[in-house]
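Progress narrative, work stream C.
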Amino acid sequence: MKTLYTAEALASGEGRDGNARTRDGKLNVTLASPVELGGNGEGTNPEQLFAAGYAACFHSALRLVGRKERADLTDSAVAAKIHFGALPDGAGYGLAAELEIALPGVERKAAEALVAKAHQICPYSNATRGNITVDISILEVAA
């Protein structure tokens, strides 16, 4: 891979209950385990950050593909859900992802083709492929 950009971040404190910040200072967040995992929920958590990053990255890939295909991506959106859970047999913890796509200006068949192409070029999709389950749903398309 030819590196085009490198993001740098530091997590400190108690891991999920601490602080994360980027070297350039543009992101500086308090981390807190969610209530569902026994935390106080008074900060963000790694899964939320991953969800935001995956949604933004996939939407960017989708818009790139859409421009090449001359598709109307007005009001398009990508929502990401990142699931955290215990692996079978107590082998640690794992993640799964869901992407929900809205392409209100695109017919269903064209939307499916655009989403498939975006899934092939999105860096987050490439990083997760074969490592975690990623379910993709197209929720909204042109009538």
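Work stream C, second folded protein:
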Amino acid sequence: MRPVHTILLGSEIPVVEHLTNLDQLPERDFRFFAVPAKVKAFGTFPVRAFGLVEA
């Protein structure tokens, strides 16, 4: 594991990476979600990531 990942995960801060199409989101006024599967003790796993644009 990379050192930064170890520090963040050790502090219970999740890491979300390898996202695409972020240029489709506005610069502000949106909320980001990364909804994980219900698992424990996994190093990596896919999530359903999406941005909710405020109307």
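Residues 18-55 form one domain. No further action is required on this item.
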